Description:
- This protein is globular.
- The N and C termini lie far apart (36 Å).
- It has five helices and no strands.
- It has helices at 4-14, 18-25, 29-36, 46-59, 88-92.
- With 103 residues, the protein is mainly α.
Amino acid sequence: MITAPQLRAARSLLGIDQRRLAELSGLSVPTIQRMEASGSIIRGNVDSLMKLIAALEVAGIELIGEGAASQGGGRGVRLKAGFDPAKASETVGDDAEPGGSPP
């Protein structure tokens, strides 16, 4: 499984836009847009999900499941358990300088 935030983060790590991801995965841009707009876990055609995941993996992305350890080692990021991204702007916004860096 893959979540919409994972998909957006993966695309950001690769430095590609939705159009390029659509090309890499053989999916349409509207399909990628729908996937990224999902609330959480992306639901849809199994074939489309498999194409998406395969394209990300070929491009160098390792998807890490909830509570799973990374198999590749090296650096990475993940959300803390119980973190609510919807509240991030409330927590981070007041102390951050322009550009998103802490003071």
